[in-house]
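re: ur question from yesterday

yeah so i grabbed the chain u mentioned. its 433 aa long if i counted rite. heres the sequnce exactly as i have it in my notes:
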Amino acid sequence: MAIILLLLAVLIIGILLGVPIFAAMGLSTLVHFIDTGRESTLIILNQRIFNGVTSFTFLAVPMFILAGEIMVRGKLIDRLLDVARAFVGHMRGGLAQVNILSSVFFAGISGSGQADIAAMGSTVVPAMVKDGYPRGYAAAITAQSATLSPTLPPSIVMVVYGAVFGVPVGALFAAGVSVGAFMAVCYMILAYVMARKYSLPLHPRANLRQVWVALRAGLAPLGMPAIILIGIFGGIFTTVEAAAVAVLYALIMTLLVYRSIRITEMGPILVSSAITSAAVLIISGVGLSFSYIVAIQHIPQAVLGALTTVSQSPFVIVSLILIVLLIAGMFVGRTANILLFGPIIIPIFYQLGFSPVHTALIIIIVLGVGHLTPPVGGALLTACLIGRCSMPDILKYMWPMIILEVVLAVIILMIPAISETLPAFFELGGVGL
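ran it thru and got these structure tokens back, copy pasting raw so excuse formatting
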């Protein structure tokens, strides 16, 4: 028990001192090496890091990042906005609905919440403000809709989660489709209610010709998520192969079809994608080494034992874990939190009867709530920066959205079918213990 406490103390102190998450996790694993005093322990830890960054599944990470970068640099985001505007722009608060639906489309390209906020914030927020929407509301709806990106395929968070914790990525993608669709509909209902409350603008409905023109122009960016989902769910190719096809598709669309990118621009795109990929992979590698230490030190069993002294109720135990995740989500990115807490809490969820896919979606959704919560929610601060508004301005409109996020997290927790139905239907695994 003393070694476990020392390991956790080193980890927490490192984070509080501002040490990068991957470095804090790496330093904490050295406690185990010092405890054993064997050179073989250090060799095993290094092998775990190497295995983490060379896993075949992890090949999907840099390729999905590259595909998203190419599509964004190719300026195809406007086509997604036109499609969303044609379908939901006529609703009360139409641009808010467009913001949400565009995030659903964009999630199928980028797989990153921060990229979503940057793209939507720089494009939709000025349009909403110009149309008479409060700037704080425009930024708030952008932050909320961006939480869909890590839920919908090709989510980078899900690829990392599946690779590190042995959950089929295809099953996570399938669960993400149903959960993401459910959340998007709830977001749009709340946006409609808030639009009526604040008397936000109402625009005429697009006619059939306008819808057709928008759809035809938007086929290129919409084609990428369609190919990924059909290919994986139909058993045509694996997640890694889907990522490679996504890169090829993005190159064809931007270099040959629309010519929105010149070949000379590929250098900066590759560099930017490589830097982002390296950041994800290094923390994933160290996270796998950290997971090994957590397992052999029996930390999940110790934590569960400590929680059962508080209450024997599974509901209370899960609630305490989710509160910790929510608070952690305010300060640290989703991927880092998953690798940090996953080795400890995932076995506890399994012991309580949750399936791997259901557990993954619960953790991902709850961490997203923290991203929207003050004082330092990552999505909240980014939206303030991109939307050029103050924290009080955005919080005026954010509270109903945060409450909705909490309610949705509870619903997804209590109803496993929301996340498990599609993986079970396509026989992708991950829905049984």
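noticed a couple things. Residues 38-425 form one domain. also Residues 120 and 405 are 20 Å apart (CA to CA).
anyway ttyl
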